[in-house]
Design goal:
single chain, alpha/beta, Glutaredoxin, five-stranded mixed beta sheet, 4 helices, 5 strands, globular
């Protein structure tokens, strides 16, 4: 299951020993609801290799602002505390999985 990431938990998570994938979303966002099952699938399949979570942009504004999140869903991929890749908009599982595998 994807974890809930907040402005407060973000820095510690991305600086951990596993790659981190964050889905920036909001309750009212239709495309966000479309990508949610894929994020949950990846979270289950890669729970031992990566941290996969979601950040609600309506409840957290510091980190989305820092990373220039203007469109949702946006998925960011981090390794060793640094942004490695991103995807804006709805994506197939294959696309997100390829980006995740590239940082493992």
């Amino acid at each position: 299951m994807a974890i809930d990431i907040t402005d407060e938990s973000f820095k510690e998570l991305i600086n951990g020993n596993k790659p981190v994938v964050i889905d920036f979303w909001a309750e009212w966002c239709g495309p966000c609801r479309m990508i949610a099952p894929t994020i949950e699938e990846l979270a289950g399949e890669y729970s031992d290799k990566a941290v996969i979570g979601k950040m609600n942009v309506d409840e957290n504004d510091e980190i989305p602002g820092e990373y220039g999140i203007r469109s949702i869903p946006t998925v960011l991929f981090f390794k060793n505390g640094a942004l490695q890749d991103k995807h804006i908009g709805v994506a197939s599982k294959n696309i997100l999985e390829e980006k995740l595998k590239a940082i493992l």
